[in-house]
TrEMBL record:
Its main location: membrane. Residues 186-388 form the Histidine kinase domain. The lineage of its organism: Bacteria, Bacillati, Actinomycetota, Actinomycetes, Micromonosporales. The keyword RNA-binding does not apply. It catalyses: ATP + protein L-histidine = ADP + protein N-phospho-L-histidine. Gene3D superfamilies: 1.10.287.130, Histidine kinase-like ATPase, C-terminal domain (3.30.565.10). Its EC number is 2.7.13.3. This is histidine kinase. GO terms for molecular function: phosphorelay sensor kinase activity. The chain crosses the membrane at residues 15-33, 45-65, 85-108, 115-134, 140-159. Keywords: Kinase, Membrane, Phosphoprotein, Transferase, Transmembrane, Transmembrane helix, Two-component regulatory system. The keyword Transcription regulation does not apply.
Length: 396
């Protein structure tokens, strides 16, 4: 259902032709229904319906995808002729012709440049007036074209201008997104390359250093690993944008050990972290991705919240729950709803990717990420399916 709808919508010659096919099919159906209200002209209305359905069939042919962008505009010319035939079939009544003529103009305005809309003026006017003249309609009826055609053309030009503006905006946003993706990829790669050299040097120093110096080198190594993780996070963001899913290495781990080891990557002197995890608690997760989730949540709590920061892991009905709570001022309800969106809370202290990556990684596990109000503070909650529970790997 949704796939069919999305194939109908969009831009390009195939979408334009398909939309024309829908309009023509509707016109043919209404012509058939008209035979019940006007049986005296049933043969003419059946002819109109056959013409509409034939044009609809042509519009729905797959070869339009290989046509030039403006090629489907030719479908309007026979459509105008069929509208004229419809007016003649109803004995000169244009009550149905006028609305469909405007619909054709609206359809054309969504897909084609303004010069095509202006070029339609002559054939559209002839299609409207010719059957009225042939059926000897009074001048008052003929003069309705002086109202209908300017209205149809004006509406079409306004729609065309708006559609053109939206297309230009979409192209601009596509260029911005392409630049952003290239920047993130370049930054991540350029950061990882020198970090690898730094890491090798630090490891050599750690092997020969005295204990006091070795502790400092060990701290530097942890932070080097942290920066590497941030670079990999940027690459993750790029991969999520491009591919929509991540491959996970899911295994069973002791939850307390995972949390404790992750804390070694976080500087917590200004905001002490308390851990409330049962020794028997386990998590069925990708280790690297779980560490990335927890580090992002802890960093967010220390940056925007207030101490103490608490980490809890509990087991519920078919899922495990990771909760990182701070005791800060909290988050307003309207912001909490969009907190895990991309670039939702960027600012001087960050670019707003951390919580978005958390949500993507949680959903890749088959879980969810959310923010819950506390008094005081806020709790960032991530759920994971427990071992043996069904997992729904979703496209992100």
């Amino acid at each position: 259902m949704h796939n069919g709808l999305f194939r109908l919508l969009g831009t390009g010659p195939r979408a334009a032709a398909r939309q024309a096919g829908v309009l023509l099919g509707l016109a043919g159906l209404l012509a058939l229904l008209g035979t019940a209200s006007d049986p005296g002209h049933a043969d003419r209305l059946v002819l109109v319906a056959i013409c509409d359905f034939a044009l609809a069939a042509v519009a729905l042919l797959p070869w339009w995808s290989r046509a030039r962008p403006n090629a489907p505009a030719w479908l309007a010319l026979p459509s105008f002729a069929v509208l004229g035939l419809s007016t003649w079939s109803f004995g000169g009544s244009a009550s149905g012709t006028g609305p469909f003529l405007v619909l054709i103009y609206v359809w054309a305005a969504l897909h084609f440049p303004r010069w095509i809309l202006l070029a339609y003026a002559v054939p559209a006017t002839l299609a409207y007036l010719a059957p009225l003249v042939l059926t000897d309609q009074p001048p008052l009826v003929l003069s309705s074209a002086l109202v209908l055609m300017p209205v149809a053309i004006t509406v079409a030009l306004l729609i065309e201008a708006q559609a053109r503006h939206l297309r230009h905006e979409r192209e601009r946003l596509a260029r911005v997104e392409q630049w952003r993706s290239a920047m993130m990829s370049t930054l991540a790669h350029d950061v990882r390359t020198p970090l690898a050299t730094v890491r090798v040097v630090l490891e050599e120093l750690a092997a020969e250093a005295d204990p006091p110096v070795a502790q400092l080198v060990d701290a530097a190594l942890r932070q080097t690993a942290r920066i590497t993780g941030l670079a990999e996070g940027l690459l993750d963001a790029q991969r999520i944008d491009r591919d929509g899913r991540l491959q996970l290495d899911l295994r069973e781990y002791p939850a307390r050990t995972l949390v404790k080891e992750t804390l070694t990557h976080v500087r917590s002197t200004d905001a002490p972290v308390t851990v409330d995890v049962d020794d028997a608690q386990t998590l069925h997760v990708d280790r690297q991705r779980f560490e990335q989730i927890l580090v992002n949540l802890l960093t967010n709590a220390m940056r925007y919240g207030a101490p103490p920061v608490e980490v809890r892991v509990t087991r519920g009905d078919g899922h495990d729950r990771l909760e990182v709570r701070d005791h800060g001022p909290g988050i307003p309800d309207h912001l909490r709803e969009r907190l895990f969106q991309q670039f939702a809370v960027g600012g001087p202290q960050g670019i707003g990717l951390g919580l978005w990556i958390v949500r993507q990684l949680a959903e890749a596990h088959g879980g969810q990420a959310s923010a819950e109000a506390r008094d005081p503070g806020v709790a960032m909650v991530v759920t994971f399916p427990s071992s043996g529970s069904p997992r729904e790997h979703r496209d992100t």
